[in-house]
Design goal:
This protein has about 110 residues and is an all-alpha fold. The longest helix is centred in the middle third of the chain and has 39 residues.
């Protein structure tokens, strides 16, 4: 099989760490990097394959949602002032603020 040379640039510390790891694995740097890259690619391929059906379902749902009229805006126009305040209060709680605007316990700042 024909070989192709790829040149990479990295800082001195990274290069030294790679050399050390390759040595501990009993490999030269090239073989170590090829092995690491192949392992990463196999992992990425497996993840993509595992989630392909979910990704397709999300894409279909997004396409369908994009084709729908924006009913949320029409519904929001029909809310009473009290309903709007209730929604705002609920959203504030979800986002970590109580009705006085203080952060609620357990919510990140």
């Amino acid at each position: 099989m024909a070989r192709t040379r790829i040149s990479i640039s990295l800082d001195r510390q990274q290069a030294e760490r790679i050399r050390e790891h390759a040595e501990r694995a009993g490999m030269d740097v090239s073989a170590y990097l090829v092995h690491a890259a192949a392992r990463q690619m196999a992992e990425s391929d497996a993840i993509e394959e595992q989630f392909a059906e979910v990704d397709a379902a999300i894409a279909r749902a997004e396409a369908e949602a994009g084709a729908m009229p924006d009913e949320a805006e029409a519904d929001a126009a029909e809310l009473t002032e009290r309903q709007r305040r209730d929604v705002e209060a609920a959203l504030a709680l979800v986002h970590g603020a109580d009705q006085q605007g203080a952060r609620t316990p357990g919510h990140a700042a």
